[in-house]
Amino acid sequence: MLTVAIVSNDATGSGQLVVALQQTGIVQSVKEWAIHATKVQETAEGLPDVVLLDLGSDPDPFFTFAAQVRRTRPATKLVAVSAVSPPTHQLLLGAMRGGVQDFLPKPVAVEALKEMLSRFVEESDTDQRPAPDKLIVVMGSKGGVGTTTVAVNLGVQLCTFARKQVVLLDFARPLGNAHLLLDLHPRFGIRDAVDNLERLDSHFFAGLLTPHKTKLQVLAGATQPEEWQTIAVSPLERVVHVAQNNFDMVLLDMGSQFGTEWSPILKMARMILIVAEANVPSLWTLQRRLVALTGFGIESERARIIINRWHKGDEEVLKGVQKDISRPVFACIPNDFRKASTAVNLGTPLLENHHNNGLSIRYRQIAAQIAGIDSGPAVKKGGLSGLFSFPTKR
């Protein structure tokens, strides 16, 4: 991940560069400097990895500034962003004297910028994978297993119990309904993000979100099935990159539909939570989903299995499944149809029900494990793997 500064005398041009940088997924932070003075105020330690020179009609002050950066910190990469493309001989000469290493034409294309920054990352021998500790993907082994319920309640617990800043991206197909489980009425959603990629920076992204009173922020999903016919995965990848800039954790409700085109997003995830039930159709598709993820090049330890609507009588079945897939079940969420159904119909997360109910406790425990914190006082354990299996009313 790179640190970048933009040197400009044009607020509009600088803002467009911020948008493009955030969408690459390779940038950790962006500073904006005015070119009013031609003196470097930062120490060598304070200078970023990359400086973008947003050249104005008079490029000389920018090249003078670049030369000072070069003297202060020779390792900093200097890039001129110019409306003159290809650059003239005089422009190239000034850039060379200032120590500029690359030119980018205006308007800057995100893919060209990403390719250049990726090269800088490789040259500096650092890790270019964007914020691998932030993205948590929640997907269902099949439809109807409660994927969105799990995503919403985990998000709420990560906000309220783990004290994390969390955004939930509703990428479920064909329709997103995470907002219904929180009784929210979003004005904007995924369609607005994709349609405004040229403006999509942290500030614009924040304006598309719908906040819940638990402080969970939601990017609403598609409201019409046909919307997905014009939404490609590549723009969604850029939405994820921007989301990671301002939040501690990004939860992505993926629903149950995915293909090879989703591989770039899945490879970004720190953890992929696969929600299943302890019945033959769900476990059959679970096994094939795990095989597919392995085929995408995703390490097996990043895929975690959550069994939803668990009964104590399911233990023997799950022991057999764990043996077949050679990995443990990450968590079991007890079946309590009455509480879960009431919460869904009222649009209230389970956190807001009675504090001693097993569902709320279990979501708190899973959130604590994801966040790497203590889940609080121990409760009665028993059954599958001890930690996760509690008795519940059937």
Note the total helix count.
13
Rg, alpha carbons = 24 Å
The SSE string, one letter per element, is EHEEHEHEHEHEHHEEHEHEHEHEHH
Residue windows where pLDDT falls under 50 for at least 5 positions: 126-131, 378-394
The count of DSSP E runs of length 2 or more, i.e. the number of strands, is 13
Secondary structural class: alpha/beta
Helix content: 25-40%
- Strand fraction: 15-25%
Mean pLDDT: 84
Distance between the termini: 49 Å
What does this structure look like?
The protein has 394 residues and is an alpha/beta fold. It has an eight-stranded mixed sheet with strand order 8-9-7-10-6-11-12-13, sandwiched between helices. The protein has a five-stranded parallel sheet with strand order 2-1-3-4-5, sandwiched between helices. α5 crosses α13. It is elongated, with a radius of gyration of 24 Å. It starts with a strand and ends in a 23-residue tail after the last helix.
Write the layout of secondary structure elements.
Layout: E1 2-8, H1 11-24, E2 27-34, E3 50-54, H2 60-72, E4 77-82, H3 89-98, E5 102-105, H4 110-123, E6 135-140, H5 147-160, E7 166-170, H6 190-195, H7 202-208, E8 210-211, E9 217-219, H8 233-246, E10 249-255, H9 263-268, E11 271-276, H10 280-295, E12 303-310, H11 315-325, E13 331-334, H12 337-346, H13 358-371
Parallel strand pairs: 1-2, 1-3, 3-4, 4-5, 6-10, 6-11, 7-9, 7-10, 11-12, 12-13
Antiparallel strand pairs: 8-9
Helix pairs in contact: 1-4, 2-3, 5-13
